[in-house]
Specification:
This protein has 686 residues and is an alpha/beta fold. It folds into 5 domains: 75 residues, Ubiquitin-like (UB roll) (Roll); 119 residues, no CATH class; 160 residues, FAD/NAD(P)-binding domain; 141 residues, FAD/NAD(P)-binding domain; 85 residues, Alpha-Beta Plaits (2-Layer Sandwich), CATH 3.30.70. It is 29% helix and 17% strand. The longest helix is centred in the last third of the chain and has 21 residues. The model has no long low-confidence stretch (mean pLDDT 93).
């Protein structure tokens, strides 16, 4: 056979004259992306990804179908080629009907692989479930107890009945581990010789310590209190998160070799400039532990507390003098935590909130529990003055009405002229927000915002000083714990990159094709499932709650966890690690929603004992059709319809289980997406 010599990306190669450009490039070790080519099959030219430039031809050509010629000069990668490939991928994605990741995982700030860990719970493999969780968060029990569960807000199961109890299952896996003889400790890489100082042993700081230590770095955490946990301990009452459970989870971090130095205050016992000189990198996780005040007369009265300033001594078991009548200002979780806590101290709490009940940012379940325990909630009212009177305090408040939406998207509360009224009480607690105290940051030039938060690069969490990073509430302002945990892990990734390679590179954004928002998911997605009532969390009896700080939510039993895990719809794609469509989309920066077209209908054929077919994920590459026809000689799959309605289906539209398919799974082997998947335990024939 005659040989020809050509140049590909500046290098000469000699191949048979019958070879294609794609085959010649492969001989050189140059990968040209393709989703429809296979060495055992004739070129099909359907995916349009394998385009290249050939000198002397103005248009791009498909390398899988063009034969080589003597002296041909080929370019396989440049901006023009990459843009065309990206567009081809985005057109394929515009029709794709499937979720790479479950909507729950995308909604989780820490991107925990929720479907995976729930699947392992359902299989009684609790150790693997715990391992999966701890790849993304080191506090499964704490977060299982206190997280507001944004993941559950996006759970597809809600379209059928109720969301899966994700947080309760995460807590179950964590508690099973802590109760075992040897709680899980992940492997730790060899020591790198690098040293990192972390300021703050809260959820962000301890999470950063956990992931940095796993990468082999020496980590020292400086904490001003005598115990770790930050707001998980001092801002969350023990009836929601018992301290012994928090202590046990912190121990799984320190047991990796993390050194925590308690009773050490930044700006007093150590300085930021000193840490900056002593360590290779510093992570600031100082939180937002100072309550916001109100600019009204009397707000400085000694009987006016900040929400966090009151929860702190309560969490330490210290006595507080608050009297019988306590007025709590605010509508968030801190306000509700204060109300439920003082109720347990024997006081009678009232919450006053300037917006409506529906707009209270606190968890609905917490609001309901507070009312059941005896808290009165007064909405659409706001204090305007506090004065000391005989026997206590008198708060003047004004009634509010909702006006136009503000920057948060909620309707702005507007005072109603002449509607003032008074409330008598013994103590006022202002739980209207928390702020960062940046005074401890002086000396190294850290940039702070006008709100006092630390300014960082949003991708790397690097501050204005190259080797100092920050994350959690000190950057965002007061926020939920899971976001602080996620920030700690993200910071660890950036710090590791900075220490080992001299440049901070942040965590890669999670990429996922999706069926769309909750209401956009095809109804057919839920037709195979029966309605199953959500497993209720067992709780402490009401008569025991108001006189003790014992935990209210008692956790799932094993039977409850198994039942609830069985409700998961397993929305993420099983081909997530092998899908070449997703792999190329990531490589070329393809946007799954750049083109808005009609997606393929959702269908699933699980009639065959060895494989499952989802036509909505098919990209019409024809590999399964040709492999089954040309190599196996069975002709199970065929193209039906034309144009935008074209699909690949079994012959005569039969279910796969009623065809002559012998289950060799060659179709699964060549499928570039998750359209064809082998059932668990099924193997491709060699």
């Amino acid at each position: 056979m005659n040989q020809v010599t050509l140049i590909i990306d500046g290098q000469e190669v000699t191949v048979p004259e019958t070879a294609t450009i794609l085959e010649a490039a492969k001989k050189m070790g140059i990968e040209i992306p393709t989703l429809c080519w296979h060495p055992d099959l004739e070129p099909f030219n359907s995916c349009l990804l394998c385009v290249v430039e050939v000198e002397g031809i103005d248009r791009l050509v498909l390398s899988c179908g063009m034969q080589v010629r003597e002296g041909m000069v080929v370019t396989t990668d440049n901006p023009r080629i990459r843009e065309n490939r990206r567009t081809a991928l985005e057109l394929l994605l515009s029709e794709h009907c499937g979720d790479c990741f479950g909507a729950c995982r995308l909604a989780c700030p820490a991107h925990i692989d929720i479907p995976a860990f729930i699947a392992h719970i359902a299989q009684h493999d609790y150790a693997e479930a715990l391992r999966i969780i701890k790849e993304d968060v080191p506090f499964p029990v704490a977060l299982g107890c206190v997280c507001p569960a944004p993941c559950e807000d996006e759970c597809r199961r809600e379209r059928l009945d109720e969301p899966t109890a994700i947080c309760a299952l995460k807590r179950f896996a964590g508690e099973r581990d802590l109760e075992s003889a040897q709680p899980y400790l992940p492997p730790v890489d060899p020591d790198t010789g690098k040293r990192v100082a972390i300021v703050g042993a809260g959820p962000a700081g301890l999470s950063a310590a956990y992931y940095l230590r796993r990468r082999g770095h020496a980590v020292t955490v400086y904490e001003k209190h005598d115990k770790g946990g930050g707001m998980l301990r001092w801002g969350i009452p023990a009836y929601r998160l018992p301290h012994d459970k928090l202590d046990a989870e912190i121990k799984t971090i320190t047991d990796l070799g993390v050194d925590v130095r308690y009773n050490t205050r930044l700006g007093k016992d150590v300085t930021l400039s000193g840490l900056h000189e002593e360590y290779d990198a510093v992570f600031l996780a100082i939180g937002a532990q100072k309550s916001s005040s109100m600019n009204i007369p009397g707000a400085d009265n000694p009987n006016v507390w900040g929400g966090i300033e009151l929860l702190d001594p309560i969490s330490k078991g210290q006595p507080v003098q608050i009297g019988q009548r306590v007025l709590v200002v605010g509508g968030g979780n801190t306000a509700v935590d204060v109300a439920r806590s003082v109720r347990r101290l024997g006081s009678e709490p009232t919450i006053i909130y300037r917006r409506s009940r529906q707009e209270m940012p606190a968890l609905p379940a917490e609001i309901k529990a507070a009312e059941e325990e005896g808290t009165h909630i007064h909405v659409l009212a706001n204090p305007t003055a506090i004065e000391e009177v005989e026997g206590g305090l008198r708060v003047t408040a004004i009634r509010m009405e909702l006006g136009e939406p503000d920057a948060s998207g909620r309707r702005r509360p507007v005072p109603i002229a002449g509607s003032e009224f008074t409330i008598d009480c013994d103590t006022v607690v202002l739980a209207i927000g928390q702020v960062v105290d940046p005074t401890c940051l002086e000396g190294v030039g850290i940039e702070v915002s006008r709100w006092g938060t630390i300014v960082v690069d949003q991708d790397t969490l690097q501050t204005s000083v190259a080797d100092i990073f920050s994350g959690g509430d000190s950057v965002t302002g007061a926020d939920i714990a899971v976001r602080a945990v996620a920030a700690g892990r993200r910071a660890a990734i950036s710090i590791h990159s900075y220490l080992m390679y001299g440049e901070a590179v942040g965590e890669r954004d999670i990429w996922s094709a999706t069926m769309g928002a909750m209401e956009e998911v095809p109804a057919a997605r839920f037709e195979r499932f029966e309605k199953v009532t959500r497993t209720e969390m067992p709780e402490l009896a009401m008569e025991q709650r108001v006189c003790t700080f014992d935990e209210v939510e008692l956790g799932f039993t094993e039977a409850m966890a198994l039942c609830e895990a069985g409700r998961c719809l397993e929305c993420s794609c099983n081909a997530i690690d092998s899908c070449r469509l997703r792999e190329y989309a990531l490589d070329y920066g393809a946007l799954p929603d750049r083109f808005h077209g009609k997606k393929r209908p959702y269908m699933i054929d699980d009639s065959h004992p060895k494989l499952i077919y989802e036509p909505g994920k098919c990209i019409l590459c024809g590999l399964c059709v040709r492999m089954c026809r040309d190599v196996k000689g069975l002709n199970v799959f065929t193209f039906v319809n034309r144009g935008f309605s074209a699909m690949v289906l079994p012959y005569f539209g039969l279910p796969l289980g009623e065809t002559v398919c012998d289950g060799c799974l060659k179709c699964v082997e060549v499928c570039p997406t998750g359209a064809l998947m082998a059932r668990e335990g099924a193997a491709v024939e060699s």
